[in-house]
Amino acid sequence: DIPVDTIFIGGGTPSLLxxxxxxxxxAAVRQVFRIEPDAEITMEAxxxxxxxxxxxxxxxxxxxxxxxxxxxxxxEELRLLGRIHTRExxxxxxxxxxxxxxxxxxxxxxxxxxxxxxxSWQETLRFVCDLEPEHISAYSLIIEEGxxxxxxxxxxxxxxxEYNMYEATAQILREYGFEQxxxxxxxxxxxxxxxxxxxxxRQDYLGFGLGASSLYxxxxxxNTQDMKKYLENSRTPEKIREKEPPLTREDExxxxxxxxxxxxxxxxxxxxxxQFGSEIDxxxxxxxxxxKSMRLLLEENGRIFLSREGxxxxxxxxxxxxx
Length: 323
Fold this sequence. Notes:
By secondary structure, the chain is an alpha/beta fold. The chain is 42% helix and 21% strand. It contains 14 helices and 13 strands. A seven-stranded mixed beta sheet has the order 1-2-3-4-5-7-6. α2 packs across α4 (87-99) and α5 (118-129) runs parallel beside α6 (159-175). It is globular and about 55 Å long.
């Protein structure tokens, strides 16, 4: 009987599932939880797998927000990324979603790609903005160890170009009526992704499926990534959950800071004191003074947030709040 405000079907490529399977999943959720009438129900979709029929089927199943992974509007950049779709396939998928009745669509984009120029990135941004989605997520490529990209010599944009791409993102999207509300996320007014905001303000969430993570109260836990163990014990949650040590007060305060600072509105000093019973300056005074003096953190109307310069070095700033 726990109320649920958001549902997110993501990870892998959910749009490989037939609409009937998505309908069964959502029916099972509704049997166990109390879904709010205006709940945001998002599903990720790969443009190479979404058709007019499947888009209509997902909408009829109860999905009311789609997240389409375009990444780039350049055919060459899509090939370099190994994406299975073309620019034209994305266009067909976007139109199919609109025709199916989706009035809340996110498009995922990626900058700092191999061989990408500032001009091609700006062309991708304007191409997407002209379609008038409600939300755009724009991430910078990170090369992870152990991935195919990590073993290759790549012609990546330099730091100056990456900086310029990030600034161009905010500027161009602002022209089209998008507001930046988080380091990598931009939305039309009132269309922020409620599910992701829940992560950043540390609301409880439950993850279902192989390897899915959860936060419930002071506990963080994740399901096993062992497929055999998961299938054999999926009806007995305690057998597939791998629990981390309970969060200490210090852990919770650090999460409050580095997750909350991802949002452009930052964190509330009053909310910190309400949750933890201490003034924020008593806990993090030295760190706050350090970054305020460098103009990387700003304070206004009882809120602390990253400056434009601070956003560019946000990882370094946030690391100073870790215990």
